[in-house]
Amino acid sequence: MSDDAEAFPVGTRVRVKKSVVVYHHPEHRNQPFDVLGLEGTVEAVVQEWEGRPVSANLPYQVKFYPKFKGHFQASELETLP
């Protein structure tokens, strides 16, 4: 797989360091919402689907709070101390 898989293992606390606009934020449904600066935990690193290896465009699934998750590239995240 890609070397990025080790950049943010599952359980790592991260912050969004680039402007990323989403439309699925629970409090701003169907409206543009920039997640820049939000902090969360890496919940999954997508490397395979149904047992087959995949190269996901946005491999890091980050959970910000119970009703909000997002998928990101390694370049959009930074590790928190």
UniProtKB/TrEMBL annotation:
Keyword Cell wall biogenesis/degradation: no
GO BP annotations, alphabetical order: photosynthesis
InterPro entries membership: Elect_transpt_acc-like_dom_sf, Fd_thioredoxin_Rdtase_alpha, FTRV
The entry's keywords: Oxidoreductase
Pfam families assigned to the protein according to its UniProt record, in alphabetical order: FeThRed_A (PF02941)
Positions of the Ferredoxin thioredoxin reductase alpha chain domain: 10-76
Domain of life: Bacteria
Keyword Oxidoreductase (UniProt): yes
GO function term, MF aspect, one: oxidoreductase activity
Family designation: Belongs to the ferredoxin thioredoxin reductase alpha subunit family.
Subunit structure: Heterodimer of subunit A (variable subunit) and subunit B (catalytic subunit). Heterodimeric FTR forms a complex with ferredoxin and thioredoxin.
PANTHER family listed in its UniProt record: FERREDOXIN-THIOREDOXIN REDUCTASE SUBUNIT A1, CHLOROPLASTIC, FERREDOXIN-THIOREDOXIN REDUCTASE, VARIABLE CHAIN
Protein task: Variable subunit of the ferredoxin-thioredoxin reductase (FTR), which catalyzes the two-electron reduction of thioredoxins by the electrons provided by reduced ferredoxin.
Protein name: Ferredoxin--nitrite reductase
Organism encoding this protein: Neosynechococcus sphagnicola sy1
